Amino acid sequence: MIRVTFRFYRELNDFLPRDRRQCEFAREYPLPGSVKDAIENLGVPHTEVDLILANSESVNFDYRLCDGDRIGVYPMFEALDISPLQRLRPRPLRRPRFVLDCHLGRLARYLRMLGFDTLFRADYDDDTLLQISVDERRILLSRDRGLLKRRRLQRGYFVRATQPRRQIAEVVERLQLQPAMRPFSRCIACNGTLRPVPRVQVVEQLPDNTRRYFNTFFQCESCRRIYWKGSHYQRMQALVRALRA
C-alpha cells in the first residue's frame, strides 16, 4: 500500500465532500497509479485543474504516485503568474467558442447574446459533444462531471450554478470573458451572425406596432430572424452592464 496526502485549492473544493474541503487528507492505494486518475477518482474533472505540485514540484497528469507524496491541486490562476511552472490547461483560446450540453439551453442563449459562438442542440449526446469540443477547439460547458472526465477532452468547465442568470455570471467571471464580449452580434436562436438590414427590406415581416415605432433593424444571416431595440433590449443592456462590472 502507498499513502498519499492531497490538498485541493479554491473552487476545486466544490467537488469534494465537506470533510475534505480546504484541508489536507490522506488516501491509500494498493498500487501506484497516475495522479490524474487519483484526482478524478476523488471527484474533480481534469479540465478544472491547471497546476499539480507533487512534493512542491510541478508535474503533469501522467505523474505516478509514490508512497509519502504530498499532492497540491490548483485551479486556473487568474492574477498570479505561474509561467515557470508546468501548466496543465491548453493555452486560452484567442476567441472563446463553446458547445453546451442539453441541460444548458438558457445559458447558451445568454452566451449568444454576449456575442460568443455557442453551439447547442438538445439532441447532442455525450460522444457528439466531446467530438465537437475536440475537433472545433470549443470549450465544453456541462453539469455532467463524468463527461468532463473524458480523457480526450482538453477544454471544459463544470457549471456550478443551476439558475441561468447565475450561470452566465459564473461563466463570465470564471473564464474572464469580459474583454471578449461583443453584445448583440449573434442570433440567440440559431447562433448566426447579425447584420444591419434596411427597414424597407423587412417592413412587410414586422408586427404593426414595430413597423410604426422602430426604424433600425438587424437580421440573422442564417435563419433570417429580425431584431430591433424594443423594451427587451433595455433589460438585456442592463444585464450586459452588470456582467461587465
3D structure, described in words:
With 245 residues, the protein is of the alpha/beta class. Helices cover 27% and strands 20% of the residues. It contains eight helices and twelve strands. Strand 6, helix 2 and strand 7 form a beta-alpha-beta unit. Helix 2 packs across helix 5. The radius of gyration is 22 Å and the shape is elongated. The N and C termini lie far apart (51 Å). About 2% of the residues have low confidence.
Short description:
By secondary structure, this protein is of the alpha/beta class. The chain is built from 8 helices and 12 strands. 27% of the residues lie in helices and 20% in strands.
Main attributes?
alpha/beta; five-stranded mixed beta sheet; four-stranded parallel beta sheet
Write the layout of secondary structure elements.
Blueprint: E1 2-8, E2 25-29, H1 35-41, E3 51-54, E4 57-59, E5 70-74, E6 97-100, H2 105-113, E7 117-119, H3 126-136, E8 139-142, H4 145-148, E9 156-158, H5 164-174, E10 194-197, H6 199-202, H7 208-213, E11 217-220, E12 226-227, H8 231-244
Parallel strand pairs: 1-5, 6-7, 6-8, 8-9
Antiparallel strand pairs: 1-2, 3-4, 3-5, 10-11, 11-12
Helix pairs in contact: 2-5
